[in-house]
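Input structure tokens:
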């Protein structure tokens, strides 16, 4: 039989700050790093092939830098974004019409690249810096949430 004193004892409730277990964080951090590189790559591809390109620029660049959660994002995200733009210029015509379509695209000129480079590069660097600053702060908070 259980006495009344034992049944009234409350077990200490464990305070959980995160939904995921502590052992799962290495996999989660790796997933965030992969997404931090993949999102700007897809955003750069989207910039070249869609008319409202500024949505891709203003959403994917800071989000990718935020997910990387490091100051290295200032170097990684703009390069990956530029690779995505290059893939958009070359890969889409190759998939749609073959090598002759790529040659036609390159011979006809690449309208818009000069504007994108002139106006987009400062925006990309600024948005990457904003995302990296937020990501570094988020990473510090994730490591020590009780100190905030």
């Amino acid at each position: 039989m259980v006495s009344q004193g034992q049944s009234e004892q409350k077990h200490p409730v464990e305070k959980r700050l995160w939904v995921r277990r502590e052992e799962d964080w290495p996999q989660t951090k790796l997933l965030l790093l992969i997404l931090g590189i993949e999102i700007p790559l897809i955003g750069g591809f989207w910039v070249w092939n869609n008319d409202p390109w500024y949505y891709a620029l203003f959403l994917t660049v800071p989000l990718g830098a935020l997910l990387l959660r490091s100051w290295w994002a200032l170097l990684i995200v703009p390069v990956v974004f530029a690779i995505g733009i290059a893939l958009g210029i070359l890969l889409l015509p190759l998939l749609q019409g073959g090598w002759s379509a790529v040659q036609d695209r390159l011979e006809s000129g690449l309208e818009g690249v000069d504007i994108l480079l002139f106006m987009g590069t400062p925006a990309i660097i600024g948005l990457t810096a904003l995302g990296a600053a937020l990501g570094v702060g988020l990473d510090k908070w994730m490591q020590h949430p009780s100190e905030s």
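The chain has one domain: 24-143. Residues 115 and 121 are 10 Å apart (CA to CA).
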